[in-house]
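Please, structure for the following, as tokens.
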Amino acid sequence: MPRAVKFSRYGGPEVLEVVEVPRPEAGPGEVLVRVVVAGVNPGEAGIRQGVFADMWPAVFPEGQGNDFAGWVAELGDGVSEFAVDDEVIGYLPRRAQADYVVSHVGLLAPKPADISWEAAAPLSAVGVTAWAAVDAVEPTAGDTVVVSGAAGGVGSLAVQLARLRGATVIGTAGPHNADFLRSLGVVPVEHGPGLADRLKAAAPDGIDAFVDTFGQGNVDIAIALGVPPHRINTLADGRAVARHGVRSRAQEDVFTPQLVAELAELVSKGQLTVTVSQVYPLEQVQEAYRQVQQRHTRGKIVLSLVPPDDRPAPAARLHTL
């Protein structure tokens, strides 16, 4: 029987269960996807904890996970955009952490064959979110841009996207991530008390734009350093949006399969690197969320639903799993 991650009450990672479910069927205009890798994101933990119950109430037993990569296992009626066995990247809120998912064909992007499943799966969530946040502050050549939480899943992509636009990028993170940020062409600055003074020292000519992925007062620091509100985008401080009039563009504001495909092409060309720090088997989903909720992860954590040794070559997939 296929498996899926479910939870039947709000709570911590301990409420998550891997249960057997019927294999879904693709309807008209849909495809059935065999999921290989699914992402693990902090926002999903908030939904499971009930933090967003007023906006996005759970329907128990609720599924979990948003972003995934897999191959097409079955076509619904009228589908001509993909063929069985095509590799795809998708985004399905609260459904992605399952062996099989059904997606409308218009929500899927092709996965380049030369990028790994682990690198592909996060692109529809953290990749698109990073693009939205960077695009919102409109960096151009010669700008100095600060990204908070620069070593995290969104931050590590945002710094690269800002650099691709010609900006000099300063990334705030813990000291243990300094060398990692340097490897991405980023000037590392340690977060924590005294951050404003360290940013002044790192950018003596001023800061043009600020992407906040972490919250905890980063927007207030950006305002105090003279960054115009319209060139600040926060993904983690809703109160600062109301207080200062800064921007808060995120994944849901810009998502299209075409954008996912463009990001995947950047990865394929070696212009964008997706850092995956840990890969957990589906059965260890609770531990994966305990890790991601600490907010100290470098890059991404993902779940593997098909172990690497069991991933058949395309020609063999029709007769496997």
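The longest strand covers residues 30-40. The radius of gyration is 20 Å.
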